[in-house]
Every structure is written in C-alpha cells, then in structure tokens.
Amino acid sequence: MEQKKTETDKTYWHPAFFADIQIELAEDADNLEFESEHQLGTNPMEIDVLVIKKETSAPIKKNIGKIFRKYNIIEYKSPDDSLSVDDFYKVYGYTCFYKADVPLANSIPIQELTITFVTGACPKSLIRHLKQERHYSLEKMEPGIYLVHGDFLPIQIIVTKKLSKQKNLWLKSLTNKLDTVSAQDLITDYLDHPENKLYQSVITTIMRANQKIFKEVNSMDDIVMEIVQEKFDRKLKEAVDREVKKKVEIATEEVTQQVTQQVTQQVTQQVTQQVTQKTKLMDLLSLIQKKCIKNKPLSVIADELESEPNDLRFVYNIVFQNPGKSIDELYELAAK
Fold first, then answer.
1. In angstroms, what CA-CA distances link 301 with 30, 59, 79, 292, 293?
2. Is 96 helix (H, G, I), strand (E, B) or coil?
C-alpha cells in the first residue's frame, strides 16, 4: 500500500525541492516560470511543481530539463517516500486534467506537455509494471535520468541517489542520508551563494535532516572557517576593487590627476572599512545561525569562536529570535 504523505513531510521537504529545482535549472531560469503546488480545479488536487517554458523553441541546457516542452509537470517524492504504480497513474491523470482544466478548448495542446518523476530510490515495482503491463521501455540518458519510451507524452524518471554529483549536486544532496564528503562539497558550493535565498532554503532543510552527519564531522567547523576566511579575503578584495573603480571613475571627471590619486587612497580606505565591517558581520551572523541550527547555547558558541559571550550576545539574540530569516534580513536587523 502506498505510504501517505504527512503534513510534516509536505512542509519539510517540498519547499526545499521547489527551491532546489530552481537551482538546478538556474541556467535556463530566464525562459522558465515555476509554480509550486499548482491547484487543479476546485477539488483538493495539486501538482507538486509546474514549470512553464516562456520561449518553447529554446532548448533547456540542464540535463534534467532536456525533455521539457511548454508545460512540464513534476512529481517529487521525499526521501522517506517511494514512487509507486498508483503515483504514476495519479500524476498521469493530473497531467490530463491540467490539459483539460482551461476555459478555451484545446488551448493547451497535448504535444506541449511532459511528465517528470523525481524520487530518491529506484522505483523497481513501477519500472517492472511499465515494462510488463504497459510494454514501455526505459533508456538511461545519464546517471539517475531515465527516459520512458512507449507513451505519447514524454516521461522521465529521475533517481536522485544515482545523479551525478558534478552535474546535480544539490538535487542529489536533497536527502536525509547525506555522507560526509557530500556534506563538505555542499558547504563549499553553498559558500559561493550565501546570500541566495534558494540555496539558503535547501541547505537549511538538508542540515536539519542530517544533523548527525554535521555533528559527527568534528573538523566541519574548521573546514567552514577555512573556506569562509579564504572566500572572505577574495570577496573583500573584489568588492573593494569594484567600489574603488566606480568611485574613481566618477571622481576623475571632476578633478586633476594629482587629486585623483589622493581621492583613490581616501576612497580605498573608506570602502575597505565599510565592506570589511559588513562582510565580517554577515559571516558572523552566518556562523552563529549554523550553530543555532545545531541547538548550541551562547556559551558554547562563544567558546568555539574564542570570544566572550557578552561580545556575541547582540548578534546571537538577533539570530536566536529570528530563526526563519535569511542572512540579508538578519543583517538589516543588526545594522539598525
């Protein structure tokens, strides 16, 4: 019997998957519209994710979206759920209903629809059913991506466990069975997008679901600190160079070459100080947020950061009192 989704499962994994699918298809985002839990009719039926191509003639570059046409129905099964035979027919039915649920007859041509199933483990019973009962065949396009042949509608099954880490790191990592190496790879990649709310949504869910891994890796904090410091130094220099160049270009239109040199030195000092203060505060907020996710008290956090609790209390209170806010939002509160 199919395991029914609980409300916890729906609210826990599906928002992260909706953010994750946008991360995966970011390269084609300008040509795509994303809808979460698209309602069908007036009854309690809904599509997990609906992706609509704006320009149908433009191909999707990402491997998981190569079959996409105009309207793309995606069914997502969370890590503890499985993709069953009945799930296949339910989503197939939803797809047909979506085609018919329009005010103008045949305004959504059947040729413009596709179906994608995303599941953690290989759905062996469903595959056996499709082969034996429907006489379909499956073609492995890439690791974890299987194209279903035999139906008029393009259908693919994506098994996240088998996906390539190089091509689909975030979708592959949307699990509660993350390994140590993948956790480190995920943090490294996340630190390239710390202010992106999509990445924040996914990493928060993954860390909550894999607390044991993140706690057991004793060197994880050291690794994070090394990566943060390296990226801080590089991003600080890049930010300073950009701001200095911008302000010097404005200044050179009004002052002589001699004054320009003086302005450059002054602006460099000013911008360096401003960017340093902001970046350090955002990094501190990020570190404390990660430690709060692990339920660490202020005294422990202060000891790990080699600081006094009173020196961190202001930032800690902001993070602790606003658990759902992003780093940008926390920074705005701190800056006030």
1. 41, 48, 31, 9, 12
2. helix
Cβ neighbours of residue 303 closer than 8 Å, sequence gap 6 or more: none
Q: Residue 155: what are its φ and ψ, rounded to 5°?
A: -130, 135
As given in the structure block, the two tokens for residue 57 are: 């003639």
Other CB atoms within a 10 A radius of the CB of residue 257 amount to: 7
Can you tell me the distance from the alpha carbon of 229 to that of 235, in angstroms, rounded to the nearest whole number? 10
- Contact (Cβ atoms closer than 8 angstroms) between residue 77 and residue 119: yes
Query: Which pLDDT tens digits describe the chain residue by residue (336 residues)?
Result: 344 444 456 556 888 888 898 999 999 888 998 888 776 655 556 888 999 999 888 899 999 999 999 999 999 999 989 999 999 999 999 999 999 988 888 899 999 999 999 999 999 999 999 999 999 999 999 999 999 999 999 999 999 999 999 999 999 999 999 988 888 888 888 888 877 888 888 888 888 888 888 776 554 555 455 555 555 666 667 777 787 787 777 766 665 666 667 777 877 887 777 777 878 888 888 888 887 888 888 888 888 777 888 887 888 888 888 888 888 888 888 877
Contacts of residue 5, Cβ cutoff 8 Å, sequence gap at least 6: 78, 81
> 213-245 burial by CB neighbour count: b if 16+ within 10 A, else e?
bbeebeebbeebeebbeebbeebbeebbeebbe
Q: Do residues 191 and 200 make contact, with C-beta atoms less than 8 angstroms apart?
A: no
What is the crossing angle of helices 197-209 and 7-24, to 10°?
130
